[in-house]
Amino acid sequence: MPFCKKCRKEMPWEARDQFCESEQAAGMERHSLVAALKPEKGLSRPVGGRPKRSFTPASDEQRDDIRKRASIMPGSGPIDPGHITPRAHGGCDDPLCVVPLYRTAHLLFDDGKLDILGAMIANGLYEEMGHAVSVHRQDPITLLQRLTGHRWAPVNDNTEVRRLQNALGDISGMQSDGASAEEMAAACDRVRHGGNVWDDEPGEQAA
């Protein structure tokens, strides 16, 4: 059984993206897992490391779609289909389930170390976000965590959850009504800063 070389606890490889208890007070570091060889191998200390890295498989349709597009994040090298909803969590073959990311950005995104929400808004990828909510039933908090890499905690009375749910519905309505990309981006920015879609701009507020 692999174990974390920081907190010394045994855990499966799948736990490597969880936060390590021993580091919560110093930057919220994730577990650093190593493989322990079986006793019959004759070694008394743990050796090895993570298993070989592999990406969530993409469908032919997704790959064909991504080949025609530029990465939404800066970088260089090959461009991958980055799954908004991973296969392990119910992701599908629809091109709306992925966004184009350079390989280095893809690695960071899958590790929860890259915020792509702003880039998705700037590129008008609202259908992709809506796909995660409407098809894969991701709640707003889970989607925010996936797209930003940050942990979000709603207040106890679920006011924040309702605000975000209402905001997603309002933004979807704006798109259906033909709102411009600038209007959509401004609405999303207001929501990100704790407001609502229909809040007045600072210059429009009554004196």
Strand and helix map with partners:
Elements: E1 3-4, E2 33-34, H1 60-67, E3 79-83, E4 98-102, H2 103-110, H3 117-122, H4 126-134, H5 140-148, H6 159-176, H7 181-192
Antiparallel strand pairs: 1-2, 3-4
Helix pairs in contact: 6-7
Give the gist of this structure.
With 207 residues, the protein is mostly helical.
Characterize the structure shown:
By secondary structure, this protein is mainly alpha-helical. The chain has two domains: 3-41, no CATH class; 60-192, no CATH class. Helix content is 34%, strand content 7%. The strands form two sheets. The protein has a two-stranded antiparallel ribbon with strand order 1-2. The longest helix is centred in the C-terminal third of the chain and has 18 residues, at 159-176.
Protein traits:
4 strands; two-stranded antiparallel sheet; two-stranded antiparallel ribbon; 7 helices; 207 residues
Strand content range: 5-15%
Number of separate structural domains: 2
The residue-averaged pLDDT reads: 76
Give the helix proportion (percent range).
25-40%
| Rg calculated over all Cα atoms | 20 Å
What general outline do the C-alpha atoms trace? globular
Q: In DSSP terms, counting alpha (H) and pi (I) runs of 4 or more, how many helices? A: 7
Q: Specify the biggest β-sheet.
A: 2 strands, antiparallel
- Sheet/helix structural class: mainly alpha
Question: What is the number of strand segments?
Answer: 4
Strand order of the largest sheet: 1-2
What kind of oligomer do you see?
single chain
- Distance between the amino and carboxyl termini: 64 Å
Poorly predicted runs: 36-52, 202-207
Secondary-structure element string? EEHEEHHHHHH
